[in-house]
Structure formats: C-alpha cells, structure tokens
Design a protein that fits this description.
Helix content is 45%, strand content 15%. By secondary structure, it is an alpha/beta fold. The protein has a domain of 215 residues: Rossmann fold, CATH 3.40.50. The strands form 4 sheets. The protein has a 6-stranded mixed sheet with strand order 3-4-14-9-10-13, with helices on both faces. A 5-stranded parallel sheet has the order 8-5-6-7-15, with helices on both faces. Strand 9, helix 11 and strand 10 form a beta-alpha-beta unit. The structure holds pyridoxal-5'-phosphate. The site of pyridoxal-5'-phosphate (PLP) has 17 residues, from helix 11.
Length: 462
C-alpha cells in the first residue's frame, strides 16, 4: 500500500500524507483537510465483522494512513489508545426499548471525545518522536473538550498542554477533571473572565506568528482529521453488532450533533460502504444544522444555553467538509460559498440529501425522553444522548433498526438527571474519586501578554 493523500476543501494546499495532515490541523489555505479518495471497503465487510474493536480500528485507520505509519506501530498505538477504556468491548451496543444504544463514553473523561483524543494524543507523541519535534497545545474550553484533550496527552513525551477555562464558569466537576491531572506537562489556566475572553486570547496567541513558530503552538480542535478518522470506526462497529443481532441488512444511526465532527465520520463510513441506510442528525434548540438539512438554508442564529451544552453551537466547524461533497467536490464553489457565509451569515444549497434525516429535541423533549427511558427501560440517558434518541423516535423507519450514539455518561450531567428524575441516580466511581484528589491551576487575567508570559516562563522552567 502507498500513502493516501489529503487535500484541502478550498483547493489551495498541495496534497500531503496523513502525518502532515495531522500536524497541519486546519489546512494552510483556511479550508479543511479531507482524503483525496474515499476507500471502498465493501469487499472487506464480512472479514471486518469478526474483529475486536482495536482490530477493526486498525483496519479502518490503515485505509487512510497506509504506509505513512508502519503497520506494527499503528497496531500498537491503537491498542494503547483503547486500553484506557473501562470495558473490554471498548464500545458496548445495547438494546434499549426499540433502539440500540451505542455507548461511546467508557473512556477516561466519560465522553465520546475520548475515542478520538486518546488516539490523537498517542499519534502526536509518535509523530513528534519520529521528527524529534515538540508541540505546545493551547486551547480554550467551556468544559468537555479541554478535559478530553488533557487526558489524551497527559504524560506524553514532547508535548505540553495549556488549557484556559473561565474561572467560576465551568461546573466544579468539569474543572476537577482538568485540574486534578498531576502530570507535569499539563497546565490549567483559570481565566479571570468569560469563555469568549479565553477564545479571544487564544486567537491572539495564534495570530502572533513569531510566538506560534518559536513555541511550536498547536491546537486539538475538532477539525483535526485524526479526530474524524478515529470516529469512523464505531459506525462500522455498531452497524455490524446490530445487523448481526437483528438480521437486518442495514441500520440508521442517530447522532447528537454540535460541530458536525461525529456525524461527518458517519458520512465517511457510509460512503466507504458501511451498512448504514441513513444518518439522523439531531440538534437541540441551536438548530442551524437540522434547519439546513430540512430547508437547504444555513443561516446563523444566536447561541442559547440548553441542557446539552456540548451541542450549543451555531457555526459547525466540520460542516465545510460535508459541503465539499455536497457541492460536487468543487473547491472553487466551496471557497465562494464559505466566503458568502462569512459575509452574509447565510447560504442556501438547493436540493435535499436523502442520506440524512434531521430534527431537533428541545429542553422539554430532553427531560421527557430521560424520564421515559428510565421509567420504562431502567436506562439512564445523558441529555445529549436524549436529544439523539428523541429525534431517532421522530424518524423511526419500518424494518430498519436504529442505533443511537450515546455521547456522554449520565453522571457527567447529574444536575439534569436529578431535575428529570431524582438525586443519586447518576453516579460514576471515576467522578466520585475526583472529589478528593488534589488540584492545580493558575489564575490569570484575560490578556494575551499575560498568558504568553506564563507559557514562556513555564516552558523555560522545565
Ligand atoms: C462534542 C459533543 C457532542 C457533539 O459532537 P460534534 O462532533 O461536535 O457534533 C455531542 N455530545 C457530547 C457529550 C459531546 O461532548
């Protein structure tokens, strides 16, 4: 096998291999990196059905990485990435009522982002070791991504991570998931300000070209191709498990959606030949994407806070990848359309994509769904998963089983579970243990020079 190549959705980057695509993150022309070709794996499906999760992950990843990473190294890296999960199947699939729940939350931070970030952390470490390079990851978080990123790179050689979060504005539990990590390469920065202040400082740091270059700054945001790639695996995995159990030839998959990263991985799996009849895109009240798939209009609304905060997103950072395929792989059209969106905050794409259904679940529906699934089936849904289940119910399809991706453990959102049901139901030993661990953080003002000074000083002292 050779090295599969990656191109930009905007056509301004000469093709690069997987390793360069991972280190680039966002494409240098402002677009997103996508595989130049999508592998057709139809002839491999029956062999893939027999594999364990890490074995299947290796096969899927290998299709997109090729010889850029030697097979034995990749196997080893994948094995390590999923050995941190607390159940032997890695991703259990359970029949609950009329749907199948695909539990993606058994990693170290109990959210589905671990599936991608455990792999990305190991991949970064591996690629840096090959080039004797260094990477300083800087991020701003309002909650989940920061802790999954920290757990992905803690203790990894060649990497330091600095995560900013707004002081007093993330839940105590989310803060502890970050600040209790003892590794010397993890640096938590509480910002005296809001999430937007953190985002602004982050942008200013990345715009400081000399600082970015001298300090090897990198990001772990959801546009990194390696994150999408790792997520393709469980679409095959869950479709295999459910078609085996039901005898059906295909499944539909419901995905609680924010930045379109997760469901885009599903779109890739479907194009590769996974037995998936349709993808169901589920949003909360922040419904720019469900409106788009129903009307063709992609127009910016205002972000409203909901019970499923990881989906409180309006501009979906991975949407451009889908747009590339929707616009017939025409990079000139993609660029023009994205420019128009930047200017007018609104675009219209004519026609409908039959590979998707879409809908929204509001706050009342989220609560109702959590209550019904617990009372009727004894199963606790976290609020993000509940949105996906509710929209799956709206789109039930005769003869085709539905897989609902469960993106977080309910104990991460215990306050909502308590509101819907009663106290004490949603617990997890990992989260209980956090309560007594020592924590570390620094408190800084939301000023670029202040944060820059802290980064420089911290790295100089190592
Ligand atoms: C990040 C996240 C989502 C949304 O996933 P996207 O890839 O951004 O669409 C859904 N649920 C939970 C719990 C998340 O952390």
């Amino acid at each position: 096998m050779e090295k599969p190549l990656y191109i930009s959705t905007r056509g301004g980057v000469s093709p690069v291999d997987f390793n360069a695509a991972v280190m680039m993150g966002l494409a240098d022309d402002g677009g997103l990196l996508i595989p130049a070709e999508i592998p057709d794996v139809t002839s491999k499906l029956s062999a893939w059905r027999k594999l364990s999760y890490p074995e299947l992950a290796f096969e899927v990843l290998h299709c997109f990485i090729g010889d850029a990473v030697p097979s034995n190294d990749l196997k080893n890296l994948v094995k390590r990435s999923y050995s941190t999960f607390s159940v032997p199947e890695v991703v259990p699939v359970k029949a609950v009522g009329t749907v199948y729940i695909c539990e993606l939350f058994h990693g170290p931070t109990l959210a589905f982002k671990d599936i991608a970030l455990q792999f990305l952390g190991n991949m970064f470490e591996y690629l840096l070791a090959c080039t004797k390079g260094k990477l300083n990851i800087i991020g701003a978080t309002s909650g989940d991504t920061g802790s999954a990123a920290i757990h992905g790179v803690r203790g990894k050689a060649g990497i330091d991570i600095f995560i900013m979060f707004p002081e007093g504005r993330v839940s105590p539990l989310q803060e502890r998931q970050m600040t209790s990590v003892p590794d010397a390469n993890v640096h938590c920065i509480a910002i005296n300000g809001t999430f937007d202040d953190g985002q602004r400082v982050l942008k200013e740091l990345f715009n400081d070209m000399a600082f970015k270059r001298d300090y090897h700054l990198g990001a772990v945001n959801s546009v990194n191709w390696a994150r999408v790639l790792a997520q393709i695996v469980y679409y095959f995995w869950s479709a295999f498990r459910v078609t085996e159990e039901t005898g059906s030839s295909a499944v539909q998959v419901s995905v609680p959606t924010g930045n379109f990263g997760d469901i885009f991985a599903g779109y890739m799996a479907k194009r590769m030949g996974a037995p998936i009849s349709r993808l169901i895109l589920a949003t909360n009240e922040n419904d720019i994407l469900s409106r788009f798939f129903n009307t063709g209009e992609y127009s910016l609304g205002k972000v409203v806070p909901t019970l499923s905060p990881s989906m409180d997103i309006q501009v979906a950072s991975n949407f451009e990848r889908y747009l590339y395929y929707r616009l017939g792989q025409d990079t000139v059209k993609v660029r023009a359309t994205m420019d128009e969106f930047a200017k007018c905050k609104r675009i219209v794409v004519p026609g409908k994509d039959g590979e998707f259904a879409a809908g929204r679940g509001d706050t009342a529906t989220t609560i109702d769904t959590i209550q019904r699934y617990y009372r009727q089936h004894g199963y606790l849904l976290d609020p993000h998963t509940a949105v996906g289940v509710a929209v799956a119910e709206q789109n039930a399809c005769e003869g085709i089983p539905t897989v609902c991706l469960a993106t977080a453990h309910p104990a991460k959102f215990a306050a909502t579970i308590e509101k819907a049901l009663e106290p004490g139901l949603a617990v997890h030993p990992t989260l209980e243990a956090l309560k007594t661990l020592p924590t570390r953080k620094v408190l800084l003002d939301p000023l670029k020079e202040v944060v820059k000074g802290y980064v420089a000083e911290t790295l100089a002292g190592k």
